[in-house]
Design a protein that fits this description.
With about 210 residues, the protein is an alpha/beta fold. Helix content is about 35%, strand content about 10%.
């Protein structure tokens, strides 16, 4: 039976938002990221990273560096007892300078190609899943597959909430201070779903709106 998963944006959600990470030294885990992912691991919920990486297409760094950064992410998380079950990156951009990458693809968020591919590879139920990120493109990707969208206020999150969000038709299902807060909300919902009921009304919601 297909399982629900939590799809995580990388930059600004798991690690500090640095713009393009064009050197391994620029990858720094956010303080509570590993704890949030570990919470999802402990609950038996698959965790999948989905990340736009147009710096490849723009020629800002090579594919080998992206591989090193993702390996460091896994290593840093493992050092705190956390893990991810998959990593999917979109290297494309319509204005790419690198040959073969100047395409309007289906995998660059907000398009849902990475979500669909992960669902096939890992046997995931997208409509029961969650997408967590600091940009509205993450929320739009969630809506495209019927998943719940969670905006974290790390990275670009606070600015997007204040300046981008008010004009958007799609709104977050939940707004979380950080990845731990997002994970807590997801775990509560999943426990309630497993019991066959809605999330208890008394559950604390310090940020955002529930469903």
């Amino acid at each position: 039976m297909a399982r629900p998963a939590v799809f995580l944006d990388r930059d600004g959600t798991i690690n500090e938002q640095m713009g393009y990470i064009n050197h391994i030294s620029r990858f720094i885990l956010l303080e509570k990221a590993a704890a949030g992912i570990r919470m999802l691991n402990d609950a038996g919920i698959p965790v999948v990273v989905i990340s736009n990486q147009s710096g490849l297409a723009r020629g800002y760094f090579p594919a080998a560096l992206l591989d090193r950064v993702n390996a460091k992410m896994k290593s840093d998380l493992a050092g705190e007892g956390a893990r991810v079950d998959g990593i999917y990156c979109c290297p494309h951009h319509p204005d790419a300078r690198v040959a073969g990458m100047a395409v309007k693809c289906e995998c660059r968020k907000p398009r849902p190609g990475m979500l669909h591919q992960a669902a096939v590879d890992l046997d995931l139920d997208l409509e029961r899943s969650y997408v967590v990120g600091d940009r509205w493109s993450d929320l739009k990707a969630a809506a495209a597959v019927g998943a719940k969208g969670i905006l974290v206020l790390t990275g670009y999150g606070r600015g997007d909430l204040e300046y981008i969000g008010p004009e958007q038709e799609i709104q977050p299902d939940y707004i979380a201070a950080d990845l731990v807060s997002a994970a807590e909300w997801v775990v509560r919902r999943q426990k309630a779903e497993d019991r066959g009921g809605a999330e208890p009304a008394h559950c604390p919601r310090p940020y955002g709106r529930g469903v």
